[in-house]
Amino acid sequence: MLRVITKELTPMSDEKTEYTISDLAKEFEITSRSIRHYEDEKLITPTRRGVHRIYSARDRVRLQLILRGKRLGFSLAEIKEIIDLYGVEGEQRQTERLLELINVRRESLKQQLKDIKYLLNEFDVLEEKLTSEHQAK
DNA sequence: CTTCTTACA
DNA sequence: TGTAAGTA
């Protein structure tokens, strides 16, 4: 069932700590379906023991980064880009790229905010029109 | 009973 | 993402 091959004798770090897909799903409150999906998208690459997936502490960290990126509104492709930059030519490029994506995200949110404000105003105008029309009758 | 793959919604 | 189906 829910057994971790090696566990919490050392709160963290042990690269020998392994998790099953259900361990991680439960810990992060997501479904195993999502975790498998992230693997399909190449964001995580768990090892296999036969046909079963085995996740390392490192995989767990990557999963955390994926979930954090999602909360910030980034796509899996963008998250993958950032994660894959870790360890490459230092973290210089990773930081630069992250900053770039943050700006892209910021602009997107600004546009959405404009659209929402416009829509709210449209509703106000329409509502008033309908209201006065109703009273006229 | 849990995990896996595949495929459709 | 969820879920159904058929396995291992």
Automatic annotation (TrEMBL):
Q: What would you give as a GO molecular function for this chain, any one? A: DNA binding
Q: Entry's SMART domains?
A: HTH_MERR
Q: State the UniProt keywords alphabetically.
A: DNA-binding
Q: Which SUPFAM superfamilies match?
A: Putative DNA-binding domain (SSF46955)
Reply yes or no: does the keyword DNA-binding apply.
Answer: yes
Q: Which domain of life is it from?
A: Bacteria
Domain HTH merR-type stretches = 18-85
Sorted alphabetically, which PANTHER family does this protein's record hold?
HTH-TYPE TRANSCRIPTIONAL REGULATOR YFMP, REDOX-CYCLING DRUG-SENSING TRANSCRIPTIONAL ACTIVATOR SOXR
**Protein known as:** MerR family DNA-binding transcriptional regulator
